[in-house]
Amino acid sequence: MKMNRLLLICILPVLFSACNSWLDVQPEEQISEDEVFSTGNGYRNVLNGVYKSLSGVNMYGREMTWGVMDVLAQCYNVQNMPSEYPGRQYKEGAAFYDYEYTDFHKLPQAIWEEGYNAVANCNNLIAHARHADPDLFELKESERALLEGEALALRAFIQFDMLRIFAPAPVTSPKGTYIPYIKSYPEVLSVKLSVEECMENVIQDLEDARKLVYKYDSINVSKLRIAERFSGPTGGRFFEYRGFRMNYYAVSGILARAYLYNNQPNEAYNVAKEIIDFQNNTKYYNFTSASKMANGNLKFYDDILCGFYSTKLTDWDKALNDVLDANGNQLFMVVKEVDNLFNGETDDYRKRYQLSAVNRLMKYAYQNNATSEGILSSNLIPIIRMSEIYYIAAEACFDKDPSEAIDYLMQVKKGRNLRNVDLSGITLKSDFMDRLISDARREFLGEGQIFFMFKRLNQSVPTVNNWKPEYFILDVPDSENI
Fold it and tell me: Structure pTM?
């Protein structure tokens, strides 16, 4: 693989003029790499450019969340959606696991190329930040470590998802080599690694990143409150909006996710428990109230540890979910088998607020811009939630303490208005996992995690007849010249 694409975001200054523009990037005249990394602001601009690129339509703005990854998870009945790109690729390719379908390859190819391009920019920033003079930065060593730590976390986060898409899950004990794990810049030639080697790199990078970002977040912990982590002072500053960045608890959550994926439940539990203890002490990640949902908080963002940001989300949603055919019929992605999914529990907030009367997913639909909840919800991309942390801890500890595991799952159910559920009679791990998976399928709609959950567990995706394990592995693009 040749890592020879020019850096696209190092030369882009970032505007911090308002809460809803902290990630807006505007191109100006090209400047040299040395000039970019000659000031603290240059480092900030590069890092914010990475976040900006990850919020694009081919990454977490659509394909990695409510787009192709959720189509692969059979979340939608896609036959009622428009045929314009990527609709036909969804309907004829992803929904039937026909990865040879004409033009389907454009979807994974765009993910691969944009993902590794972001990795290259992370690596360039890391290489400079590790040797940078702390006096370049406003907060000296604390800021230098924060920049390196966030870039390191993003490098691991991206390549972990590349592994989850383009390689088998660890549970299958794969023996081959599948993708590279890029840690240097520039990378002229890289070697594909085994799943085990990639996971070792992911986990090590996340562990290192945690230590680096802790230096800032541990002394600025109040910035993680819901009142502050997705907002900031007038004019905005780089050190605000920690919920839009790889903060300490977001990195920790992704680390717990990685440990569980890698069949390390004890390690996953320990990290998840640290986050749960923090929540118990601070109440920073409480579940969203019905009053906030009624005001437009359909992302239920109160418990989101980290989210990305794009003002184009609702436009991308309209292109697939708000289209009329020649006869005036509305075309949209219908959430599949809703009655079975919610099993009669109509009080569930996820059904009441996040699905329309015709079972259209409303998470990415335009919300009321007259409320702060609606404005934020319209532009926010969920990346990892407190609910997932409860799921991880529950699955990881059931064998040792079923009552503790049940309590964690009940935390999510109660937070989503299912207060009368009784799980106390569950004694078998298989029965408990059925209940957890059922809840997670509701929770993760539109967030890209359902396909990966079934892949991690090596379970067939529901509603698919004659499931084949190879459906879990997308082909690495023919052209790796990124």
Answer: 0.94
